[in-house]
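Box S1 | Example of a co-folding query
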Amino acid sequence: MTDLSPKAIAQARAELGVPVERLPRSVAIIMDGNGRWARRQGLPRVAGHQEGAKNVLRIITEAARLGIEALTLYSFSIENWNRPAAAVNALMHLYAQYLGHERPTLVANNIRLRHLGRRASLPVPVQRELDESVRISSVHTGMYLCLALNYGGRAEITDAVRRLAARAAQGEIDPAAIDEADISAALDSAGIPDPDLLIRTSGEWRLSNFLLWQLSYAEFYVSDLYWPEFGPEAFRQALIAHAGRHRRFGGLEDAPPAAESTR
Ligand code: FPP
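Box S1 (continued) | Returned holo structure for farnesyl diphosphate
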């Protein structure tokens, strides 16, 4: 059981040496380079994803220990269905297994699991394990862990637009009154703070259709490490780098974005 008392979190943050107001509340990660890590070791791709899954555990635990409010992990994109069937099946098998096995981790770290993405086209065993993990963790009060699984940023925005359009057609909302908060609330990530920091491993500088709406003001941190080797120390270095950035949100000094303009 991780000690997640306010005192323990304050202690972990003090050891990191970053002022609390400069710690990201919400972090998103594109966990890239598992296949390349495996190839470099002379192992099959699936071994890279298994090792990547072990690292997911290490990073979840570290983020919870530091009192991060939300961690969003890009686990499978809608575009990933274009991979060979055997590779997709191996990943889906891994997700079902991982979601089933790791419920004690959610309990031990007081984590609330959320799913981002199109649930209905996931294989039934993955849906079942996902639903059960979301259900059992819904009573928790700690970090949100958002798994983007069968996720695409454009698809998420499209789904949100459809929901809002359906409500407008029913006369529940006035189309002219729809604002940014309404759109945020119609996304899969409703209620989760937008990421302050986006980490991508394996040296790639692409957004790959991830959280297109939510990342508007995020700082981007790219590590050359492959995901299986991007451990807690590398994660802490990313948080330290974020703390050194000056976020201006389009203005002149550190300040959150002003309310949306009505002009
Ligand atoms: C990108 O390419 C990564 C993925 C498609 C999936 C990432 C999956 C994991 C880290 C497995 C465990 C995750 C959970 C939530 C249990 P790539 O890494 O397949 O390979 P590349 O080296 O060819 O870019």
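Residues 45-65 form the longest helix (21 residues). The chain has one domain: 31-243.
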